[in-house]
């Protein structure tokens, strides 16, 4: 999977830092509340990116009290129609 979808250094560093912060919150070393938000699933990458941009714009406002993490599952259109039989 990593060969097909390589991760940039910046993305890897962001992911690592977020996981470290989540670990600290879950183990009580960070007093903030972990908030996981996002649509259950999405099939349009452009819509997901717009959602992420809007969410990112709000993150600084709450950063003192919350760690906001976007979670989204990308679903293919073929998979969507398969469940409608």
The major β-sheet equals: 2 strands, parallel
Q: Residue share in helices?
A: 40-55%
* Average of per-residue pLDDT values: 87
N-C termini distance: 29 Å
Structural class: alpha/beta
The tally of strands reads 4
Spans of at least 5 consecutive residues with low confidence: none
The main sheet orders its strands as 1-3
Cα radius of gyration in angstroms = 16 Å
Beta-strand content = 15-25%
> Based on CA inertia axes, which overall geometry fits?
globular
Number of separate helices: 3
What is the ordering of alpha helices and beta strands? HEEHEEH
Describe the structure.
With 85 residues, the chain is α/β, with parallel strands linked by helices. 49% of the residues lie in helices and 16% in strands. It contains 3 helices and 4 strands. A two-stranded parallel ribbon has the order 1-3. Strands 2-4 form a two-stranded parallel sheet. The two termini are 29 Å apart. The model has no long low-confidence stretch (mean pLDDT 87).
Kindly list the characteristics that best describe this protein:
two-stranded parallel sheet, alpha/beta, 85 residues, 3 helices
Blueprint (SSEs and pairs):
Layout: H1 9-26, E1 33-37, E2 41-42, H2 45-62, E3 66-70, E4 73-74, H3 77-82
Parallel strand pairs: 1-3, 2-4
């Amino acid at each position: 999977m990593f060969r097909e979808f390589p991760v940039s250094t910046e993305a890897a560093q962001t992911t690592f830092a977020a996981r470290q912060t989540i670990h600290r919150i879950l183990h009580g070393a960070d007093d903030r509340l972990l908030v996981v938000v996002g649509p259950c699933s999405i099939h349009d990458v452009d819509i997901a990116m717009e959602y992420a941009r809007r969410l990112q714009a709000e993150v600084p406002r709450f950063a003192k009290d919350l760690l906001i993490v976007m979670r989204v599952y990308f679903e293919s259109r073929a998979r969507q129609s398969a469940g409608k039989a």
